[in-house]
User: Which sequence fits this backbone?
């Protein structure tokens, strides 16, 4: 087996540093945010975030047996080390890649602090001073997973008027781009399993999209997410029916596994089609890009393998003249990691914000001002990710029964 542990010894003293510990903690926001801390003997530590949900703290704990003692400045080598060392239990795809994503980001943070450079500079370039955000909005209650099933609000909460009112509220907050869910409980009334949309269901979605466009006009970018719900023919019909509304994109129309089905849907419509958030590593996204099976690629850096892996996705997207818009349901930690990516990627479009209902979202960082102002986040100039966690706020919102760093 290839050995990715440190083989070289020739390095200047100030960069001859070691990882001393790696920790994870879970903060309960609108999702279970997995925060990662990498400690070093250089007097600096790094913070990262892995995609939400269970299993990450256990996998992070496992990596300590081979990462402690390694040089945190070798970010890319250490991620390969994780993939290789854990290849039999998910290093090629899945939760190990998710855990590695947060460790990777924490390594960039500490590397930046040690070297005195912001993460975007370590990634290669600065193309922009601020990153435009789009706000994930909800007409009814926000998406929630309760007792294993998706919880929906009452049907009237999803009226076209409710969508339009929420769109107005969020535009008035300063956002220039919005996204709503377009998969409705009513889609399942005919049959919950076959992915077929009735004419009535498509007509209802048209009414929702029309109501939002009537309210906010066409100068605001507007996307809708369908959460992998439909059959190919229903996806194509829906995308075609919405063409006149000039959407920013329609997201995740069909289930994520079948590339040729995705290519078929994307090529069938003038409505831009986006997907990518539940794919792991560049290998699971390359075909979509080279086959033009997607108009906007939406990997999640906290899932796909970290910032450098997302850069590799962005490179392949750039080769095919496709913009990249990361999926993001993170705390401010993962969000700020994506902001550095946004600065460093030429074909970066805009970044998701998915925590409108968490009124203490900003409090997780020690800052005087909100992170998002006028719908953008300024790219920080401080070393690393340029953030400082407020440990007291972390403690206050820890997942019940868990401990902090
Ligand atoms: Mg989505």
Assistant:
């Amino acid at each position: 087996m290839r050995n990715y542990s440190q083989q070289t010894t020739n390095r200047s003293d100030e960069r001859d540093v070691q990882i001393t510990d790696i920790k994870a903690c879970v903060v309960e926001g609108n999702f279970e945010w997995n925060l990662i801390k990498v400690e070093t003997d250089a007097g600096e530590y790094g913070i990262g975030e892995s995609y939400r949900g269970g299993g990450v703290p256990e996998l992070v704990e496992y990596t300590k047996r081979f990462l402690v003692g390694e040089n945190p400045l070798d970010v890319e080598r250490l991620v390969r080390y994780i993939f290789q060392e854990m290849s039999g239990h998910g290093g090629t795809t899945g939760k190990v890649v998710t855990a590695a994503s947060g460790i990777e980001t924490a390594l960039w943070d500490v590397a930046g602090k040690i070297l005195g450079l912001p993460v975007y500079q370590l990634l290669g370039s600065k193309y922009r001073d601020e990153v435009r955000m789009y706000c994930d909005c909800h007409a009814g209650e926000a998406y929630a997973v309760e007792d294993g099933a998706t919880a929906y609000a009452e049907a009237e909460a999803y009226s076209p008027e409710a969508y339009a009112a929420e769109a107005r509220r969020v535009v008035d907050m300063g956002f220039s781009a919005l996204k709503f869910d377009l998969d409705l409980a009513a889609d399942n009334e005919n049959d919950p399993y076959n992915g077929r949309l009735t004419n009535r269901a498509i007509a209802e979605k048209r009414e929702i999209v029309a109501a939002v466009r009537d309210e906010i006009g066409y100068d605001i970018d507007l996307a809708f997410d369908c959460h992998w719900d439909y059959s190919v023919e229903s996806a194509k019909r829906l995308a075609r029916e919405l063409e006149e509304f000039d959407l920013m994109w329609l997201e995740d129309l069909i289930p994520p596994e079948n590339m040729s089905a995705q290519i078929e849907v994307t090529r069938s419509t003038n409505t831009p089609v986006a997907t990518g958030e539940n794919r792991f590593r560049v290998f699971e996204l390359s075909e979509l890009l080279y086959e033009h099976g997607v108009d906007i690629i939406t990997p999640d850096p906290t899932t796909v393998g970290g910032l450098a892996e997302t850069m590799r996705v962005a490179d392949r997207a750039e080769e095919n003249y496709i913009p990249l818009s990361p999926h993001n349901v993170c705390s401010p930690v993962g969000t700020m990691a994506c902001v550095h990516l946004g600065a460093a990627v030429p074909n970066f479009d805009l970044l998701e914000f998915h925590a409108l209902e968490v009124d203490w979202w900003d409090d997780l960082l020690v800052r005087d001002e909100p992170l998002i102002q006028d719908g953008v986040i300024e790219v920080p100039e401080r070393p690393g990710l340029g953030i400082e966690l407020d440990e007291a706020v972390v403690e206050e919102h820890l997942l019940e029964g868990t401990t902090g760093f």
Summary: The first helix runs from residue 56 to 67. The chain has two domains: 13-116, 122-381.
